[in-house]
Amino acid sequence: MLGKLSRRSRKRLETSGRRANATVLAVSDRAMTITTGGGNLVTDTEVAVKVTLRVEPDGEPAFEVQEKFRFPQLALPSAGQRVAVVYDPDDHDTIMIDGDPLAAVDAMLSRSGRPPEKIDLVKDLMASAMSGAPSADTQAIATRWAAQHGGAVVIAPGAMDGTTFAGAPGVPPAASTEQDPVALLSQLASLKDRGLLSDAEFAAQKARVLAG
């Protein structure tokens, strides 16, 4: 199926499959590009590539699978990367990449060494940005992040003009040099909201931030 399950199989997994995080063990050097839709070479092109995964379900033994999956061409996986999957507990070879963006965030940050509350803040920020919530709501989450991290400056969606920052009083934007993933993700979300990034470009850049 060129790296993509049938619609029926995907629907079945979405309904009754189990979700887990997985580690990419190996990525084949051979791949196939597939362009659909309007034929845009960036947004409408995926890469089908064989990947070896170590799936690590909660409360169950880990297992390995080698299957072909499709990825955006700007977000190909690499060995050591974490991904979210959905699998059939009765047939581990029936498996797909979890399309839930928050599941992907959780998978990529699960071994980052960050405390759970920091990961939850990242997920809250992403959920707010993707839900179409008012920028003030997302800004409030960014402000909460700043309050918990010593006044680290975070540019939240809707603040890309440089006039609104979340940080400790008296801390100018230039005072923060650390490329915190929350700051980068919020900037990406703002670019996407303003139509400056496509869904595929946003997903690719998000994957790079979280993998870093």
Question: How would you portray this structure in words?
Answer:
The chain has 212 residues and is an alpha+beta fold. The protein folds into two domains: 7-99, OB fold (Dihydrolipoamide Acetyltransferase, E2P), CATH 2.40.50; 114-211, no CATH class. Helix content is 35%, strand content 25%. It has six helices and five strands; from the N terminus they run αβββββααααα. The protein has helices at residues 7-16, 101-109, 116-131, 135-148, 181-193, 199-211; strands at 18-35, 45-56, 63-72, 82-88, 91-97. A five-stranded antiparallel β-sheet has the order 3-2-1-4-5. A hairpin with a 2-residue loop joins strand 4 (82-88) and strand 5 (91-97). The longest helix has 16 residues, at 116-131. The model is unreliable at 152-178 (pLDDT under 50).
